[in-house]
Amino acid sequence: MKANHFKRFARRYIQLLAAVLYNCNFKGFATGNIWQGSTKGLCAPGLNCYSCPGAVAACPLGSLQTALLSSKYKFPYYVLGTLLLLGLLLGRLICGFLCPFGFLQELLHKIPTPKLQKSRVTRALSLLKYVILLVFVIAMPLIAPVPGFCEYICPAGTLEAGIPLTLLQERLRALTGVLFTWKVALLVLILVGCILCYRAFCRFLCPLGAIYSFFNPVSFFGIRVDRSKCIHCDACVRHCKMDVKKVCDRECIQCGECIASCPVDAIHYGVGRPARQPSAPTGREAFGKPAAKTVLRIVLVVLIIAFLALGLSSNGFQDVKNKAIRICLECMGIG
Fold it and tell me: What angle do CA 191, 240, 270 make, to 5 degrees?
């Protein structure tokens, strides 16, 4: 009985553990002071505001925008290397297991209300997060320059930093204005949307999920489909609450809920390549998708090593830490 319970709720326990580990500076929630330790130079895999009083690591999106703001003077090797590393290892499995805001969205969706089902419309809306990535995360820091996503959109920053810190620090309450009101209103809309629609922010708005989605086809660990067993019944796609067209496409968060729906037990977690067909191809067919993925992985590993080495040698770790140990007014919607 206990084994079955753990198997059923294992992902929930991992999500909860990740949320606690990201925010284990419990003293900060009482004092309103943010963590100043060296771990703030590390980027947490999931969306978690580094100005949260409990946060012990940096936000990858906040760190990326800050790095892009200073890219005129220093290329953001360290942050890009970190994102490449996380993406290559896990892809959007991070969304399904290691994102505190994703965990919150799933809990909200359990509130009993009428639910919006996935459709062609929701599939089309899932492209919006790529627009937000391009415009607010990349273009605005380079052109404006402002950390557009943190300043105007990020609900995690408002929920985890803006609201708690303004409640705990009177001097910050005096700085709130129209922008803070906008961020709180947007947070409420997003949370309501998550009640009505499964992981609405994750599916339609999250640029971090957009980044990790590029790595789903080549990530070392994640959901695998044994093509020799698959009967193409699409039970997995019908069962999935995300806007997937097939297992492990760009919208798959690799939560594993499709595993139980497969009538031929063709879906599983694995490391490395998906299983091959029983008869191995020859000639030109042999250099198909598996070989292309291998080449791409090698290229990414070389880039990761180079970027992290260059980033660390140019104080990239310290740059991230220096930003993350200060209260980020943009994350909070203050200014």
Answer: 110
264 and 230 Cβ atoms separated by less than 8 Å: yes
Quick one: 6 exposed, middle or buried, by C-beta within 10 A (0-12, 13-18, 19+)?
Answer: exposed
| pLDDT attached to residue 278 | 40
pLDDT digits (tens, 9 = 90+) for 191-250: 999 999 999 999 999 999 999 999 999 999 999 999 899 999 999 999 999 999 999 999
Alpha carbons 200 and 148: distance in angstroms, whole number: 20
Flag whether pLDDT at 116 surpasses 80.
yes
Q: What are phi and psi of 267, to 5 degrees?
A: -110, 135
Burial of 268 (0-12, 13-18, 19+ CB in 10 A): middle
Whether residue 37 is predicted with pLDDT greater than 70 in this model: the reply is yes
283 sits in the region (left: phi over 0; alpha: psi -120 to 50; else beta) called left
Residue located via tokens 């391009």: 134
> How far is 302 from 113, CA to CA, in rounded Å?
48
* CB atoms closer than 10 angstroms to residue 173: 13
Q: Cis bond leading into 145, ω under 30°?
A: yes
SS (H, E, C) 160-222: HHHHHHHHHCHHHHCCCCHHHHHHHHHHHHHHHHHHHCCCHHHHHCCHHHHHHHCCCCCCCEE
DSSP per-residue letters across 95-110: HHHS-HHHHHHHHHHT
Amino acid at 167: L
Against a cut of 0.85, is the pTM above it? Answer: yes
